Amino acid sequence: MRPRHAKKYLLALLLFIPIGLLQVGIDYQRKVEDLESDLLLLPGQVAGNLVLGGFKGLAADLLWLNMEEYWHSGHHHKVLPLLETISWLQPNYVLVWAIGGWHMAYNIYAAIEDDPEQQAYWYDQGTRFLKKGIYYNPDKYDLYFELGWTYYHKGKDYPNAVTYLARAVQYSSPDYVTDVLAHAYEKAGDIPMAIETWQVLIDKKSSFSDIAVRMIHDLKTKGKATP
Amino acid sequence: MRKSWLIGVNTFRESMRNKTLYILLVIALIVIGASKLFSFLTAEEEMKMIKDVSFAAIEFFGALIAIFSALGAVAKEIDRRTIYTLLTKPISRNHFIFGKFIGVALVVLLNFVLISAFFFGLLLFKKTIPDIEIFKALLLIFLELILMSSITLALATVSSEAFALIFSFFLYIVGNLTSYGKQMVERADNIIMKGLADMLYTVVPNYANFNIRDKIVVGVPVSWLYLLKVGSYGIIYMVVVLCLALYFFQKREI
Q1: Which one of A5, A157, A217, B191 has the largest count of C-beta atoms within 10 Å of its C-beta?
Q2: Under an 8 A CB cutoff, do A33 and B244 touch?
Q3: Number of structural domains, chain A?
Q4: pTM to 2 decimal places
Q5: Which residues of A touch B220 (CB under 8 A)?
């Protein structure tokens, strides 16, 4: 090889330096934008192979289909490790957290109706699962709402319901979230805040406006609007 | 450049006669079409499945097409000895390699456009308008496929067809795992191991950089800055690989 060419090729190899620097920049950006993938080992060879090939979404989908099958065949407890794994694979997949929390706090709860201690345990597991989901998805209303609703509807824990529903409405959310928040304020005994929240729906000219007018009227005249 | 372009167009035409590529294309379209079978799921779950399956099909079958067309472009010319006729003409080896790269890139582009168009069709059929994030994911997949084909091309200039094929797939798998490997080594105390891992991390193509589809499907937005960085990474890496391909091809006795 002629020295002139050798220099040219050496120069090309030197390009690995900017490649290395760019890789550092990319790694940083992946951390900042939450594009990182944690090291993980999965149960099930197929899912494992897909993860190794860089097809994490597909692996999560297969596990999801497995979960559906277990769910519909009544194997509720087999669903849980799958939900944990899917949420581990794709922590930003909000639906997994929402459905997981619902399964625990509602469906498994209902399946063990003669054991209040176990029911309390699964209600607690459901809310914990939702809180874990919020940790990974703090900028979306969905899981705040799911958790708030679980506290409101299943746990009758109105102060906690208000806390999470109030956080949900801070993000872009549908009007029914504000509607539930207004009910939760009333149930928690904070009538002025309930009226204020209903007023928000009237001001927004939302489809809940008619209900909001009636609710404010009932709250002001009877001190109670939610059945 | 004109000579390279002519070789490129010719390579493209020749690849279009390769039935394997059509079979891969048809399978990819069937796989994407099959994602519609998940209609028993809720609309949101189904849409996620459609996107996941489609991205995976575009990536996987795109990779197969990129590797096989790059392999066929150089190795077949050498095996069939048609390269002798070519190189007796006033065509330098540089023109030949660049031309082959252009031809392979055109094949990858055509297949990529066809599969992506089918994916978009499916989304529109489901009354979902593809957003800009989907385009970002596709852009990086395309860049990854082009990088993959340039690496296979370089390997084909230096080794046998079988070795180039196996090593390309090996790099494809390893390239998706380098970040996992780095995470493992970072926990080790051995400095030599760490240094070696850092070097490998730079030298081995990091295909995981191009994978944003898993995040985009679940609604995580990706910045243009990230795309710019990964785009620069892909282009510089491609330049290095093509230079190496030229170097090896210059040295190869034909």
Answers
A1: A157
A2: no
A3: 1
A4: 0.79
A5: 33-35, 92
Task: Judge whether A212 lies within some domain.
Answer: yes
Nearest-angstrom CA–CA distance, A71 and B235: 47
Q: Is A118 part of a structural domain of the chain?
A: yes
Q: Which two tokens stand for residue B243?
A: 């230079």
Query: What CATH number corresponds to the domain at position A135?
Result: 1.25.40.10
- Amino acid present at B238: M
> Do residue B239 and residue A1 have CB atoms under 8 angstroms apart?
no
Q: Is A182 part of any domain? A: yes
Among B73, B69, B54, residue whose Cα is nearest residue B23: B69
Range of the domain at A197: 56-222
**Residue partners of B189: CB distance under 8 A and separation at least 6:** none
Using one digit for the tens of pLDDT, what is the confidence trace for A40-74?
555 554 555 555 556 778 888 888 888 888 888 87
Q: Are B130 and B50 in contact (CB under 8 A)?
A: no
CA distance B118 to B50: 12
pLDDT digits (tens, 9 = 90+) for B208-235: 899 898 889 888 889 999 999 999 999 9
| C-alpha dihedral sign at B117, B119, B121, B123 | negative
Q: What is the DSSP string of B178-247?
A: HHHHHHHHHT---HHHHHHHHHHHHHS--GGGG--HHHHHTT----HHHHHHHHHHHHHHHHHHHHHHHH
Is the Cβ pair A26, B215 closer than 8 Å?
A: no
Q: Which of B44, B225, B244 sits opposite A95 (nearest CB)?
A: B44
B244 and A CB contact within 8 Å: yes
Contacts of A99 in chain B (CB under 8 A): none
For tokens 């785009």, what's the residue? B231
Assess if residue A33 is contained within a domain. no
CA distance A50 to chain B (A): 10
pLDDT digits (tens, 9 = 90+) for B113-172: 999 999 998 888 888 888 899 999 999 999 999 999 999 999 988 888 888 899 998 898
